[in-house]
Amino acid sequence: MKYTKYIAVIAVLLMGFAAISCAQDYKSLKIDELEFTPPDVERFELDNGLVVYFYEDHSLPLVALDATFHLGEIDVPVAQTGLADLCGTLIRTGGTDTTPPDDFNQQLDFVGASLISTAGTESGTVQLRVLRKDFDPGMRLLSEMLTQPRFDQEKFEIAVENKIEGIKRENDNSNLITRREFYKLLFPGHPYGASATTETVANITRDDLVSFHAEHYHPDNCIIALSGDLTLDDAKTFVEKYLENWKRSNGRKPDYPPIPDYKPGVYYVHKDQNQTFLRIGHPGISIKNPDRHKVMVMNFILGGGGFVSRLSNKIRVQEGLAYTVGSNFYQMNESGSFYCYCQTKSETTVRTIEMMIDEIRKFIADGITENELEVAKNSIVNSEIFEYATPHQIATQQASFEFNGYPADYGTERIKAIKAVTVDDVKQMAEKYLHPDSLIIIAVGNRELFDKPLSELGEVTEIPLR
Question: Which domains does the chain have, with CATH numbers?
Fold first, then answer.
């Protein structure tokens, strides 16, 4: 098998990461760089604009296909948040013009195929998994689903009920509350900050789903990753047979709303529990930002690197205040977010927040060491191999580069860019992209148990659970 050598390397990496958890002095840790070259993937394109990345693998009699679309809640009015999600669901569960929902499911079951459709904030995905011998009927059903969904009214009503039940259960999950309220404050009134409510779902009709599909589900708005027990000629034959008549879009690009100003401050959500869920942060960077590789290295050292990060070493290892603590620069097409997260005892809530902010300040002021930089860069470069652990990941990784607007050799160029980051680069990124004086601070817990009043951090705004 072409990818067995990558699996072997993964085993070595796992042993290395186990050693990291036992390291006594994270600043003296050494991680060697692995030599790795991403495998080649075939690319072809149909006349209707559909792009396909194909990776041949005959180790198992299986075929995997992922179709990813540029669409999502970003294309939906805030008052109808949830529409893209419902559309993604109903494309699969609502049958097709020629096949009622139950018959469609029976045909999939007959060949043992898995067909899943979802839609999120900025992308929608359709996944097909099927035996090689049944790839033909699997592709026929996939084509029907994509090009002529029925959006059955009864199934629509069931999907709406399920969506509303899910919304009602959101407040059972403190981590989800923290995330939801953080993005509402970070992107007020914008699709990036919106979350579905019973009111927004009530504003959605079946006709809205039909219109959303007609506008966004087109071949020139889609990239397919295909892998498995096929030759390149087989792949082209099947894709052309079932998808070459799929109609292109009208070419109109969506007009996304501008990114709004965010609302820094201290925010509290009451939940009667003995632990506090924390998130502090501010706007970050988009996937297009030319500093993204330098920021990746910076964030690894600050809080994204697990046990070897500053936040984990201080708050978890030295102070014993949390099991989970870290940071992230989450990147989206038009913007992004920086945040630190932590879960701590109620009695150490304010102390932990102060410590997190203090670590950010020290990071900006003091910079990093050469050894921290080496560990971060080698860890990130070595982790690239996990993106190529299976044949289908090899295809999807290459497809994702084009989907995000990156060049075909982005895998190699990304590794070069990470290797080129210097100590001075990280300090510059910290000074440019970390803003400890302009943070959103959210605490979800019971303030009656807190070690100190949240007001010591600033004026507190209480957010009621919806």
Answer: 42-243 (3.30.830.10), 264-462 (3.30.830.10)
Q: What is the DSSP letter of 90?
A: H
**DSSP-based three-state secondary structure for 180:** helix
Q: How far apart are the first and last CA of the chain?
A: 53
Torsion sign over Cα 91, 97, 102, 104: negative
Closest CA to 321 of 354, 282, 283, 360: 354
Q: And the tokens for 63?
A: 């075929």
β-bridge partners, 440: 265, 281
Q: List, in sequence order, every beta strand (DSSP E) within 171-228.
A: 222-228
User: Structure pTM?
Assistant: 0.90
Over the Cα atoms of the chain, what is R_g?
24
The rounded distance, in Å, linking the Cα atoms of 368 and 362 is 10
Euclidean distance between CA atoms 363 and 395, whole angstroms: 38
The predicted pLDDT at position 250 comes to 86
pLDDT at 456: 97
How high is the pLDDT of residue 47?
A: 97
